[in-house]
């Protein structure tokens, strides 16, 4: 009996170290997103697997590639702080203070979702997690594609990829394009803060410390708590 052959073509992989290949990689990644395919991209934390945030089928493919269900919706990456107001409502002043100091950077904010949005990221309970990464390649891709649903580039339960080889080993059969930006700065993910209430709550401590968060919001009379 012949072996079953996966009809998913091998992912195209581009190094972003050299300008010409970087441009080709970003162009191909943007086209893949437009076609509803998945891409791997470097960020300032770990590598991510990304899909068009406004294409429900692409988001479903992303969750399936990771072996994850709808109960764990992916965050959305943006290329500019101003995009947040197109995705979220009721963003409090202390959250905007955090954005001013820490975006672009390893801070994800869980906000109330803009009710007019036509998308399906999973079981979000009316919220959206948004981040602006501090990585030139990621920002350049986002500027071409618009907001991307991006989760860490790994199969659920395995460590997040910190280089393109690890990402390809875990997800290469599920993605169309891999942008190889070399090793990431480290394995720490972004810090996630719920800003849907009058005071923020840390849902996951990562690259930004609780002390740093509170240093920023203290002048506003707000204290961020650590739920963990």
How do the helices and strands line up, and which of them pair or pack?
Layout: E1 12-15, H1 19-34, E2 39-41, E3 48-52, H2 56-66, E4 76-77, H3 84-87, E5 88-89, H4 93-102, E6 107-113, E7 127-131, H5 136-145, E8 148-152, H6 164-171, E9 177-180, E10 191-194, E11 201-204, H7 210-217, E12 225-226
Parallel strand pairs: 1-9, 2-9, 4-7, 6-10, 11-12
Antiparallel strand pairs: 2-3, 3-8, 4-8, 5-6, 6-7, 10-11
Please provide the ordered H/E string of secondary-structure elements.
EHEEHEHEHEEHEHEEEHE
The DSSP helix count reads 7
Biggest beta sheet summary: 12 strands, mixed
> What is the radius of gyration computed over CA atoms, rounded to a whole number of angstroms?
17 Å
Uncertain parts: 1-6
Could you report the average pLDDT, rounded to the nearest whole number?
Answer: 93
Shape: globular
What percentage of the residues does DSSP assign to strands (E)?
A: 15-25%
Number of strands: 12
Summarize the amount of helix as a percent range: 25-40%
Structural class: alpha/beta
Give the termini distance in whole angstroms.
52 Å
Please describe what this structure looks like.
It is a single chain. This protein has helices spanning 19-34, 56-66, 84-87, 93-102, 136-145, 164-171, 210-217; strands at 12-15, 39-41, 48-52, 76-77, 88-89, 107-113, 127-131, 148-152, 177-180, 191-194, 201-204, 225-226. With 228 residues, the protein is α/β, with parallel strands linked by helices. Strands 1, 2, 3, 4, 5, 6, 7, 8, 9, 10, 11 and 12 form a twelve-stranded mixed sheet that branches. Helix 1 runs parallel beside helix 5. The chain is globular and about 55 Å long. 46% of the residues are buried. Mean pLDDT is 93; it is low at 1-6.
